[in-house]
């Protein structure tokens, strides 16, 4: 029996998660072995200090082994009924959303799929996928954020300030929340944003052409966070201008 779309995605994520935990565990074992052979001749368990350090290390090793085992067991089973979904707008149950996503994917209705860091030093599998009903933010080893496509107002690539916590991120302005998806290649993230604009119109294109993406994206993020009503008024005004321009072009 063929696996459903979300179930298959959970299997891929589980494989990446297993590799991560096994890598961390292997690193811990190597460091532990090195420390053991480095200090084994100087340890005297008859001394309270040395015995305390030994007990602390044994507890840490046991905890590390337990956590690794639990994660390996969890990663064996694929997620079903939308268990791997995050629904930031809480518009429906995970199971109901999973049925929609699985059905549209099975029907071949994947409108767009783009990797977030495709052309950088390391090829990540973090990607954004557009379906008729949902936009999916698929992380390499995490869950899938599902956002109703008709609840997204605007998408843009936002460069970070010098010395900031991120280099570039994809911002999704939605009906209730501002959602971000990190990247590490500015040009590529801008390309992803441009590709998405055929599904989510770039209503603020005029502003960007005049002021630049950094100024506009940060200004609109601040407006969205501090004055949601003001943002919506501006959005509706620009959307109307875009529709009028498209009608004139069509004529």
Secondary structure layout:
Layout: H1 5-39, H2 48-74, E1 85-86, H3 94-106, E2 112-115, E3 127-130, E4 134-138, E5 144-148, E6 152-159, E7 168-174, E8 178-183, H4 186-196, H5 205-211, H6 213-226, H7 228-250
Parallel strand pairs: 1-5
Antiparallel strand pairs: 2-3, 3-4, 4-5, 6-7, 7-8
Helix pairs in contact: 1-2, 5-6, 6-7
Into which percent range does the helicity of residues fall? 40-55%
Indicate the structural class.
alpha+beta
Tell me the number of strands. Answer: 8
Strand content: 15-25%
Query: Any idea what the shape is?
Result: elongated
The largest beta-sheet arranges its strands as 1-5-4-3-2
CATH hierarchy class name of the largest domain:
Mainly Beta
Low-confidence stretches: none
Question: Would you write up a description of this structure?
Answer:
This protein has two domains: 5-74; 85-250, Pleckstrin-homology domain (PH domain)/Phosphotyrosine-binding domain (PTB) (PH-domain like, Roll), CATH 2.30.29.30. The model has no long low-confidence stretch (mean pLDDT 84). The termini are far apart. It has helices spanning 5-39, 48-74, 94-106, 186-196, 205-211, 213-226, 228-250; strands at residues 85-86, 112-115, 127-130, 134-138, 144-148, 152-159, 168-174, 178-183. The chain is of the alpha+beta class and 251 residues long. α1 (5-39) runs antiparallel to α2 (48-74), α5 packs across α6 (213-226) and α6 crosses α7. The radius of gyration is 24 Å and the shape is elongated. The longest helix has 35 residues, at 5-39. The protein contains seven helices and eight strands; from the N terminus they run ααβαβββββββαααα. The strands form two sheets. The chain has a five-stranded mixed β-sheet, sandwiched between helices. The chain is 52% helix and 16% strand.
